[in-house]
Design goal:
This protein is mainly β. Helices cover 8% and strands 50% of the residues. β10 and β11 form a beta hairpin. The protein starts with 6 loop residues before the first helix and ends in a 6-residue tail after the last strand. About 4% of the residues have low confidence.
Length: 339
């Protein structure tokens, strides 16, 4: 049987392919154009924070923090950012994002080496790991008052994770090779959970059922059932799993590896690694935060002084943004400066 291909058939196929390509391109461009607001990026080597406008893709302001800043937390409404001044600063720097203005410094000299930071549900208080005091402090960012100090009873309490209700806080204790579970409501330590060597990165599901921990020296990322202690999944091919972040809908987890210059995208339900993105040497992936669509990821690149904007789950780098000197902690606000 002979098939006759007419000029009209060829034209229709060409037209279909062209329209499909144009539609895909238009969708991608629309998604990129839809990104607006401000990224706040902590620059560790610069002792400052960059305010990056997503519309113009430019740094529109740079403001001094305390000495040795590392992490940043942003309120849900995007109006306030709080930076931990970790190396020598021993303080929290509170910023009005809309005005790009530092409005207060909260002294933590009694609780030195503040590092990990997350907002509690009331969006007034933050939970901060105080590594030099083996504690988690609860601070009101508006009054500057330290309302609680919870002893982890372990060494090297570095990062924090909060359940959805923010009634419990978890810390990775890097020197003690453990995680401390603390009750904020009861103001006490609940238990210690043994971990593979040098735990740093940490995340917990909103319902508190699953705990994710990255162990730097062991080169592992492990997921635990918090009720039974059962190991649900473990990956053994990391060198420095710097951070673990779950998307708000908990469909994906992302894990930047500081030393091997990679970013992993994992499907949470199946615990299947969907993608490993390999970046050039000395990219040094650091902080990660999702855009409101929960499918666009911002990742700071410490030794490149930039931010990569990445599609999840495809892993495609959409574009890059400039940052300051040694970008690490990163946060998102829907506002633009002066809005």
């Amino acid at each position: 049987m002979t098939t006759t291909i007419t000029v009209g058939t060829v034209f229709m196929r060409y037209l279909t392919l062209t329209l499909t390509f144009l539609l895909t391109l238009a969708t991608s461009l629309a998604a990129i154009a839809a990104l607006s607001g401000t990224l706040v990026v902590v620059n560790k080597r610069g002792d400052n924070m960059s305010f990056i406008d997503l519309g113009s893709r430019q740094v529109v302001a740079t403001r001094a923090t305390g000495k040795g800043p590392h992490e940043v937390a942003v309120t849900k409404d995007g109006k306030w950012a709080v930076v931990t001044d970790y190396v020598g600063g021993n303080s929290l720097s509170v910023f009005d994002i809309v005005q790009a203005k530092k409005v207060r410094t909260i002294d933590l000299s009694q609780y030195p080496w503040p590092h990990g930071i997350l907002f509690l549900a009331d969006q007034k208080r933050v939970a901060v790991s105080a590594e030099g005091a083996d504690a988690v402090v609860i601070a009101n960012i508006f009054s500057g008052e330290i309302t609680q100090a919870l002893n982890t009873e372990q060494k090297g309490s570095h990062m924090v994770a909060l359940t959805g209700r923010t009634d419990k806080v978890y810390t990775t204790n890097m020197q003690s090779n453990s995680v401390s579970e603390l009750s904020i409501d009861e103001g006490k330590l609940l238990r210690q959970i043994s971990m593979p060597e040098t735990p740093e990165a940490i995340a917990i599901s909103a319902n508190g059922d699953e705990l994710w921990v990255g162990s730097n020296k062991a080169g592992l990322v492990t997921v635990f059932n918090t009720a039974t202690g059962e190991q649900l999944k473990q990956w053994r091919d990391y060198t420095f799993p710097y951070r673990i972040l779950l998307s708000q809908d908990e469909k994906y987890a992302v894990i930047p590896d500081f030393r091997q210059n990679t970013l992993d995208i994992i499907e949470n339900a199946t615990k299947k690694r969907l993608k490993r993105i390999q970046f050039p040497e000395k990219t040094t992936p650091n902080g990660v935060i999702f855009a409101p669509d929960q499918r666009t990821l911002f990742m700071s690149a410490y030794d490149q002084n930039k931010v990569f904007v990445i599609d999840v789950p495809s892993g495609k780098v959409k574009f890059e943004l400039p940052a300051g000197d040694g970008p690490d902690g990163i946060g998102y606000s829907p506002f633009t400066l002066g809005q």
